[in-house]
Amino acid sequence: MIIVITIIAILTSIAVPVYIVHLRHAHEAVLKEDLYTLRNAIDQYTQDKNKAPQDLSDLVTAGYIRVIPKDPFTNSNTSWQTVQEDVMTAIDQTQPGITDVHSGSDQTGSDGTAYSTW
Hints:
The protein is mainly α. It has helices spanning about 1-50, 55-60; strands at about 80-85, 95-100. The protein is about 45% helix and about 10% strand. It is elongated and about 75 Å long.
């Protein structure tokens, strides 16, 4: 019985760290995809409306995305950090607004950079 418990403990000590690394990489892939989607929607909105969105909810209201995705590291769709700029990105843009978005997480990615800088 002790041998079985020892084997289970050894296998668990190997499997759990590997699982955690794979889970982190999966969350990072989701974050990258969500950032890509949000940034494309911001750019398209800005070009189509001749003004940048004032809030991420503008992208939903205008039909550019169905819902604001949850940040996989904060598990919230309200923690996104938006970048508001005073510069106009389109020549005929009439109003400044959101030009970029980042994760609201204070964690560091597997590449050593903060998720908030992605």
